[in-house]
Amino acid sequence: MEVFKKGSNIFKILSEAVSEGIVIVNKSQIIVGTNAAANSLFGYDEDELLGQHLDVLIPKKYHHNHHKHVSGFMDKSHKRQMGHNQELYGARKDGSQFPVEAGLNPFSVYDNNYVMALVIDITVRKKAEQELKHWANIFNESLNEIYIFDVNTMLFIDVNKGALKNIGYDISELRKMTPVDIKPHLDKEGFLKEINPILEGKKDKLKFNTTHQRKDGTTYPVEVHLQKSSTGDHETLVAIILDITEQEAYTQKLEQTVAKRTSQLEEALVKEKELGELKTKFLSLVSHEFKTPLSGILTSATLAGKYPREDQQEKREKHLKTIQAKVKYLNNIINDFLSIERLESGKVKYNYTNFPLSKVINEVIYDANMLLKEGQNIVYPENIDAIFIDFDEKILDLILTNLINNAIKYSSEMSTIHISATEKDDLLIIAVRDEGIGIPEEEQKHIFNRYFRAENALLNQGTGIGLNIVKTHLENLGGSIIFSSVQDQGSIFTITLPITN
Ligand code: ADP
Q: What is d(CA 323, CA 295) in angstroms, rounded to the nearest whole number?
């Protein structure tokens, strides 16, 4: 024991020169010597540890294991490093713990066995290791792809799991490759040009978009973030790659949606404008077109009032008929306008029912009779009693009313209007023929344009919207309209519609 006591010069000189903590224990694990480094490591004063059991330097929870260890070690008696497979901790006087690395050296003096433990506080190193592990984890677990490659050879040095997974090569394959090998649209020259600002030190970081090609040949758009770095004496470039397939798809979709919405908006604006124009037109038409019949109605009503006597019944009836006809006429114009408004605003809703053709024809002709001029007559279609159709009844009424009223309006007194209806396959063909003024040939091509009125029709009242809505409705319902006309001889308008819906 004497040999380790204070004042024992050999030990003192040797041990104080060593920066590691030295703790010497005897066979019974009693501390027989410590150096200044050990005292300060464990927080004791000089000589304070002498005579104490080694356990005071070891956290309680490790005592049991440690005892077994030490006795085993004493028996084998050879030099070794402790804690290779597990973490070792020291306990300070104040109870705190710290990670240590310890080397054990057995020796004997005067036949007594001792063990000298060299103890290093590895708190700082441990922390650095942990930090490194943390960063390595981030590198590996990152969902982005990370590639590290050599500045000079351009060969990949390391890549993370995310990269391996997406690109499809394994690390040994990649180590023989450079970034150019996974960029189908860039050759070496192009790539060097792209990253030149970093190579020349003009920039610390770079960001650019390109395409990467997987081992299986498929490609995907990427955003590359490139930065200079170094490992050991290697100058490296670190590339963080974002697969922007979804982002691009999203952007594309967004652009398409924007384009679609814009065109919808434009369409809506056009419609809105047309509706606005229609309203203006309507107002001016109302003032023109309504004025004449309204003043006619007023005149007839006034005149009718002038024939109160019973024997004047015939005269009264004549005026009342005129009133009826003019009201009917106004009603038709309003129906046409409502139809336009609905067609324009997309609000039109067709209502299919099954009905006999004769019903609509009878109603339309009955109403048209009021408008007939002197000596005009309408010839009913033959053999239509058995014809039933699936169609919008009100719309068919509107179509036929327009055609028959035109035929009456644009032909002279004493003329005949012929209506025919025939079934052909699944189609119903209805023709309205008159012997009237006809349509000048050069104007025929405009006849279905809204508000168009032929030169020879201008003496008659009209709005120029009837044929336009007739055609639109028919087309919406799977039908069609054609006509042929010779000026001053007459016209025939023929509509075709499906019998079944
Ligand atoms: P409106 O009769 O109110 O003017 P329409 O749209 O019904 O409007 O007809 C458009 C134009 O077509 C008429 O102004 C006229 O020039 C011509 N038209 C239509 N039907 C006939 C017909 N049966 N005979 C001669 N011209 C016609």
A: 10
Cβ–Cβ < 8 Å for 456, 437? yes
pLDDT of residue 192: 93
The band of 333, judged by pLDDT with boundaries at 50, 70 and 90, is confident
Locate the DSSP E strands across 127-218.
145-150, 156-159, 205-213
pLDDT value of residue 284: 77
| Structure tokens that stand for 34 in this block | 């410590």
Report the chain's terminal Cα–Cα distance, integer Å: 118
Q: Which residue has the higher pLDDT, 345 or 242?
A: 242
Residue with the two structure tokens 């809105």? 272
Alpha carbon distance 441, 387 (integer Å): 35
Q: Which residue's CA lies nearest to atom 14 of ligand 1?
A: 453
| 459 in Cβ contact with 443 (< 8 Å) | no
- Identify the H or E element spanning 223: strand 219-231
Average pLDDT over residues 206-216: 95
Q: Residues 87-107: what's their mean pLDDT?
A: 90
Q: Is the pLDDT of residue 69 over 90?
A: no
d(CA 391, CA 439): 30
CA of 475 to the centre of ligand 1 (A): 19
**For ligand 1, atom 13: residue with the closest CA:** 453
pLDDT in tens, 125-134: 999 988 989 9
Give the pLDDT of residue 1.
46
Closest Cα to residue 167, out of 72, 239, 61? Answer: 239
Q: Residue 38 — left, alpha, or beta (φ > 0 → left; ψ -120 to 50 → alpha)?
A: alpha
Mutation probe of ligand 1 site: the residue of 289, 411, 419, 447 with most atoms within 8 A of C-beta? 447
Question: pTM of the predicted model, to two decimals?
Answer: 0.50
**Cβ–Cβ under 8 Å, residues 350 and 476:** yes
Is residue 79 scored above 70 in pLDDT? no
C-alpha of residue 325 to centroid of ligand 1, in Å: 19
Tell me, in angstroms, the distance from the centre of ligand 1 to residue 457's CA.
7
Confidence at residue 83, expressed as pLDDT on a 0 to 100 scale: 57
Give phi and psi for 57, each to the nearest 5. -95, 0
Nearest CA to ligand 1 atom 11: 453
Separation of alpha carbons 172 and 127, rounded Å: 31
Cα–Cα distance for residue pair 23/48, rounded to 1 Å = 12
User: How much distance in Å is there from the Cα of 493 to the middle of ligand 1?
Assistant: 11
- Tell me which amino acid residue 312 is: Q
Q: Is residue 403 within 6 Å of ligand 1 at its C-beta? A: no
Average pLDDT of the chain to the nearest whole number: 89
Quote the CA–CA distance of 463 and 468 in Å, as a whole number: 11
| Best residue among 289, 408, 467 to mutate for probing ligand 1, ranked by most atoms within 8 Å of CB | 467
Ligand 1 in contact with 437 (CB < 6 A)? yes
Ramachandran region of residue 29, left (φ > 0), alpha (ψ -120 to 50) or beta?
A: left
User: Looking at this protein, which amino acid is placed at residue 279?
Assistant: K
